[in-house]
């Protein structure tokens, strides 16, 4: 039912391509505050102009950098709202869930479940090799990080979920009229966009298994649960807890996290462990809690178009 809510004769695939351009343009426009900050530092404070992303990330205090970078996602989210409402004439609810309203309890359950997994995983690694970590607790900067992270990181993760598990998943469903193709394409695109992350350069291409596998996991729980509340909660917990708990000098963001990982990164079984072990455990937990059935049909079946009156109701409410 979730994908079917976006199936309309006028929702040609070219509209989704055009809508994607609008969303990307909004995101680029949202980088203007960062651009102004860079110009101020180079022209007024005479700092050297950053020649790469690593220099850019180190140009400002890490809390300010996080806020400036996250701002572009707020603009992109506004872009999502615009294209959904005014180009596709759908409600935001119709690209969020098939339920009558978004289930906040699902979001929170997923958030705290993955928070627990993340903290437990870190504790296990820390207890095995405490020499690889430095306590980095700085009360004031950390509290500022908590505020900025709590406000801005869910905007970032929600934007990505609305683009991939909401907007584009329904877009590919309009194109293919089945469920496996949207799941495949959104997962591959989501994972591939992480290709230029510094983690890939440090750990090798094998880490793409994790990124693409995470895309598949988020797509599966969206299709099985007929809505993306669980994906919203998981993604927010993954990025927020990561930013607050531990950082290193080779990750995308360096933050005032509680710990700094000073170990040399390497790609081994730990990279694919979440994909082949942890994610299946989470799928089992979700399936039991929310009584998921008919997996094959929900993940690979053909799209059944909704009745015109039902579609009209869903899109206007």
UniProtKB/TrEMBL annotation:
* Keyword annotations: Hydrolase, Membrane, Transmembrane, Transmembrane helix
TM spans, by residue?
A: 16-38, 64-84, 107-128, 140-159, 180-197, 203-223, 230-247, 267-286
Which InterPro entries does this UniProt record tie to the protein?
A: Rce1/LyrA-like_dom (IPR003675)
Into which EC class is this enzyme placed? hydrolase
One function term, GO molecular function aspect: hydrolase activity
Q: Under which EC number(s) is this enzyme classified?
A: 3.4.-.-
Q: In which domain of life is the source organism classified?
A: Bacteria
Q: Which PANTHER family match?
A: MEMBRANE-ASSOCIATED PROTEASE-RELATED, PROTEASE
Q: What is this protein called?
A: CPBP family intramembrane glutamic endopeptidase
